[in-house]
Design a protein that fits this description.
The chain is of the alpha/beta class. The chain has one domain: 2-Layer Sandwich (Nucleotidyltransferase, domain 5). Helices cover about 45% and strands about 15% of the residues. The protein has a 5-stranded mixed sheet with strand order 4-3-2-1-5, sandwiched between helices. Strand 3 and strand 4 form a beta hairpin. Helix 2 packs antiparallel against helix 3 and helix 4 crosses helix 5. About 35% of the residues are buried. The model has no long low-confidence stretch (mean pLDDT about 85). Pfam families: DUF6933. It comes from Robbsia betulipollinis. InterPro entries: DUF6933. This is DUF6933 domain-containing protein.
Amino acid sequence: MLRFYCTKKLLDRIGERPATEVSGISGKNLSNWYTTILFLKPQIALLVNECTLLPLLMPLAPEKTLATRFPAHLAEILSLHGWRPDRIESELRQLDGHQFLKTANRSVLGIMNEFAFSAEVYKHHHRSDDTQRIALALAEIVFKPIQYQSPSQLLAVIEAHGSNLH
């Protein structure tokens, strides 16, 4: 089950009422995503994986289709991080269905805020609207809460070993 833990401003924009409780079985490492809006031009959805802290950027519009467009964007970013196609397909198969929830993990929210700031700085400094390029740069930022040096390095471990970190 794919879970989007959304900020209030995003829930209001997509017109979804958050579920009151988590339903379904969790996938492996890439099933829980913290999601917000970046008010850049064009507006972007910033998604941060709860387990790996992997940042993913995708166009916000059309807001109502965010959940259905997400798997294709996830496949693209995993491919850019060097994942094999069979491994990507395996991960995506586990993300059957989706659910919108309110944010719950304050640590991930703080990291999401850091990514939002860094994305804006990168976009302006490099004069780039390439969301994949920005996301790859964000994935190299080192955070203390994870065992590995960056989300990018943690993804490499998961892909290589097929490990479930939960």
